[in-house]
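This section describes the prediction task in plain terms. A model, or a person checking by hand, is given the sequence of a single protein chain and must write out its three-dimensional structure as a string of tokens. No templates, partner chains or ligands are provided. The sample shown here is typical of the held-out split.
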Amino acid sequence: MVWRRMTAPDPDSRPVAPRDRFIDAGGLLMHYLDWGGEGPPIVLLHGLRDQAHEWDAIAPALVPYGQVVAPDQRGHGGTDRPRTGYDPADFAGDLEAFCTALDLDRPVVIGHSMGARTAYAFAATRPGRLRGLVLVDIGAQGAPETIPAMVEELRANDGPFSSADDAIRALIGPELAPSTALRAYVGHNLRQTGDGLLAWAYNLDAAIETVRRGRGRDWWDVVARIGVPTLLVRGARSDVLGREEAARMIETIPDAVLVEIPGAGHLVPQVRPRELAAAIIGWLPAVLDGVR
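The expected answer:
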């Protein structure tokens, strides 16, 4: 097992505005953001209740290393919201269709939370389709006993909100100061209701079904089949991925490195985007060069 605590300096990330695009991915109309870049494809997958703009503060730092794109996953953002199909296997199928439609050959896939589960489901079932994998604050331990509380929390925090600050407090609580990236994320992920209040832009029923499918079983048999270099990132204050489970993940995945981000909980991309970008950049070149 390799363990590193990441305190690297902030990467030099110049602002790069992504382009909004849509593509038919196996019959699912998917919205995605395209930051451009040349070289190996890098696909960014957001977490539950998020959308592609989750990566706005991180993607520009990755553009020098390849072609950077981030789709909205089904039920989220501007992508179609079918009534069914919210198992990790369904999300992995969408990822395959997305990569095929855009002719993305052997991408590095970087996923946060739900997006990381999509990524490892894809890696385990489609050997040879990936170049590398970054899993941000996700484990493989099932937790069916937590599903009722999570569903209750999803319903309770669905809004409406009187302001964006109220929505931020629903996400991270009052004890953490919101980052610029988090404020930007919330701005992209809220919609106006008919009475002038704010609500999240994702589909609540889709989010609930995703939780039930993702947390209802263990995924150790899946992560054991990951056959590409993998970076596992854990927020040091995470209540989703504990240290023991993170250590087991590294022991289970054949070629994996663990990095811990100080001061971050589960929302690593939103709360510590520069530190996360630095961790990825510290690992990525060797994977792209075929050294790992």
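For orientation: Confidence is low (pLDDT under 50) at residues 1-13.
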